[in-house]
Amino acid sequence: MALPLIINGQRLSAITQPALMRGIHSENDRILVLLRLNGGNDGLNTIIPLDQYDNLAQVRNNILLPENGLLSISDTNALHPTMQGIQQLFENERVGIIQSVGYPNQNRSHFRSTDIWTSGSPADENWQTGWLGRHMDELYPGFPEGYPNDDYPHPFAINMGSSIVSNTCQGSSANYSLALADPFSLSPVEEGEGSEVPNTPYGDELQFIRTTIIQTNAYAEVVTAAAESGANSVDYPEDNRFAQQLRNIALLIAGGLQTKIYIATLGGFDTHAEQVVDGETTTGEHAALLSSLSSAVAAFQADLEAMGLEERVVTMTFSEFGRRIRSNDSLGTDHGTAAPLMVFGSCVNPQILGDNPEITPDIGADEGVPMQYDFRDVYGSILMDWFEVEEGLVQSLLHNDFNYLPILKNCSTVSSSELLTDAIVLSHYPNPVRNWLNVAFESAREWCRISIFDSLGSEIRTVLNKEISEGPHHVKIDMHELEAGPYFIRIQLGQRVKTFRTCCAN
Question: Exposed/middle/buried for 58, CB within 10 Å: 0-12, 13-18, 19+?
Answer without folding.
Answer: middle
